[in-house]
Amino acid sequence: xxxxxxxxxxxxxxxxxxxxxxxxxxxxxxxxxxxxxxxxxxxxxxxxxxxxxxxxxxxxxxxxxxxxxxxxxxxxxxxxxxxxxxxxxxxxxxxxxxxxxxxxxxxxxxxxxxxxxxxxxxxxxxxxxxxxxxxxxxxxxxxxxxxxxxxxxxxxxxxxxxxxxxxxxxxxxxxxxxxxxxxxxxxxxxxxxxxxxxxxxxxxxxxxxxxxxxxxxxxxxxxxxxxxxxxxxxxxxxxxxxxxxxxxxxxxxxxxxxxxxxxxxxxxxxxxxxxxxxxxxxxxxxxxxxxxxxxxxxxxxxxxxxxxxxxxxxxxxxxxxxxxxxxxxxxxxxxxxxxxxxxxxxxxxxxxxxxxxxxxxxxxxxxxxxxxxxxxxxxxxxxxxxxxxxxxxxxxxxxxxxxxxxxxxxxxxxxxxxxxxxxxxxxxxxxxxxxxxxxxxxxxxxxxxxxxxxxxxxxxxxxxxxxxxxxxxxxxxxxxxxxxxxxxxxxxxxxxxxxxxxxxxxxxxxxxxxxxxxxxxxxxxxxxxxxxxxxxxxxxxxxxxxxxxxxxxxxxxxxxxxxxxxxxxxxxxxxxxxxxxxxxxxxxxxxxxxxxxxxxxxxxxxxxxxxxxxxxxxxxxxxxxxxxxxxxxxxxxxxxxxxxxxxxxxxxxxxxx
Length: 657
Ligand code: ADP
Ligand code: MG
Ligand code: ZN
What we know:
By secondary structure, this protein is of the alpha/beta class. 48% of the residues lie in helices and 12% in strands.
């Protein structure tokens, strides 16, 4: 791809099948052509005759000239008028000639061992010469010319297929890099469009700076890292950041995804890597961005099979190329992945992707900034408080927030509003968290009542536990696939650490729903399944991972599995202890849950009148915010400052029915 030409349209770049079909067409046609050419060349106006006929012609004195070569005799025949009738033995050739029997023609015959030939020719007065084969001219004419023609045709075809100009993929370029070259400013993104990851931006600013003023760094002997790896959960803006770096630095930007390298054929990916680096070095200073690096960068030697061979070769080529250029050559590699734990360690060693930039899920301030970025172009109502929405969305990634803003715009459009209101935003956030409302799902009064008791049970137990997150909303409007109702609790701040009491209070609150059912009806429903699943997992983690049980002690009894960003409350675990310990763990889990459940029931029995009152109100209103709930149970807001009150659930603290 030539730098000054615009990149080919995207759709053209991955059409391998049509090219293959052309190749399949082209080859047989060309072979037939070549074969026919050679036939025609040798037969061109030259008649091949049997040796016996040649001898007859000589005896008749009809041969005027003859050139005797190593294995053929060629020459010219001037037939006499009555010649055909005089050669009755050679019917085939006579018939063929009879049409224009008196015309002179060129002949060729295969030479047969015949010592007397010269004498006979002398006798017949033939002009003859001995000749060595005109090797060069013959070779040129029979081989070089047709092959040259074929080549011309080939390049014409392949140019046609590459969409003109020969700039993009052609048949001859299987191994060529598919990097898209984005001319400067064309990404249309700069650092202002990325919010909430200031540390990452700070680190990358250095790269931008170097690309703009390399001399300042060189004069100090500072070495800029060759490779920078952006690591973070999906949707936190890694791809966006890389584009922003290119937009800021205004240097050529090669963007491609890890999977672009990997092809069906072993070695193609490696060829692409080499080609990419040739291009990049020619364009320095520039940025090469490899998205989803884990597609090629996985640990080598773990799997077997042809696909793996290809990946390993590609990775090796990448490693070699990364070592192959000087640190300050001006080529900087950016890569993004959300699975750093599967990457080959050789990729991460100094001199390669030694700089890692963490792009984490944003905190409150970051979320507010991201919301600002995404609401820049939408008309917001007077009452919109983005700070409050930011507080209501712990655990949201940048992509989630962008999605929520879009949902809000859709909701506003649906009610023909001119502006997006706070309530659109809140509804959108809830929709993203808990799924869309299902107003059509009609619950009978009896089921509604049960759901209401269950949800109020969660809320009351939480409200009467000292360390639990404040209740933000209670609702019995069905949402999403399964939830018939839900209680949202929100931590006051982003939580990075949880105390044992907080964990216990959370378990107790989650059991409050079932406890309420038992206290009110003396019987339970299937509705608590999700609650039980979560409390069991939480209790197990406390005992196995956090060392919060005296009997099991500090030894870690399980291993976490799954990608690093799931290491929050969820994620899966693998047991890592003896059978005996496992049994003990089960007993301790049961003990812990039984105790929490008993406490939850106790709280509800003590506050039975609150349970009845709030439930009656909830059945009337169907949903209730945290403030109303607290007023009903006569609890003032804990710190009296409404603006400090948190609003939504970190994902997973949502207590479904
Ligand atoms: P990743 O590559 O980390 O999975 P992307 O960069 O593709 O995530 O982000 C997807 C979209 O989410 C972006 O196009 C942007 O609209 C939005 N987004 C994500 N993070 C941010 C952020 N920090 N600031 C602004 N927008 C963001
Ligand atoms: Mg991405
Ligand atoms: Zn529940």
